[in-house]
Amino acid sequence: MEARTAGGSDAPAGKRPDPGAAADADGIIVLSLPAGEHITQAVAERKAREARKLAGGVARPLLIDISGVLSIDRAARSVMGNASISTAIALLGSSPVDRVIGNFLLGGRQPSCPVEFFSSEGEALAWLSGFRRYPESNER
After folding, report:
1. Distance of alpha carbon 84 from alpha carbon 27, whole angstroms
2. pLDDT for the residue numbered 79
């Protein structure tokens, strides 16, 4: 996926720089949470703003890479659980700990859109492609 960047290589060991958010050619929003960090409400709100800006007012599929995140606090889970601009959310992780964090991400509430956990970015993007809405159709 060409729109996604990994950032620089000067991050401390165990952490990756915060690459921000990007939209791929299919209109899927890709959000990477900073690995090796505890995700707070402030980080979650910044990421939500980035995603909303990229979405441009159109509901789009969302990929959230949680690989290597140490924890996500309750306030951050609340922010991320209110992803109202998403048609579907794929959580991407690479370890059993990532899967546990993914399960807690929604805070036990019923999601407003389909949510799945994936350990393969390709599988996650393939699944999300089925939830693509086209702006020209005025579908909301």
Report:
1. 16
2. 83
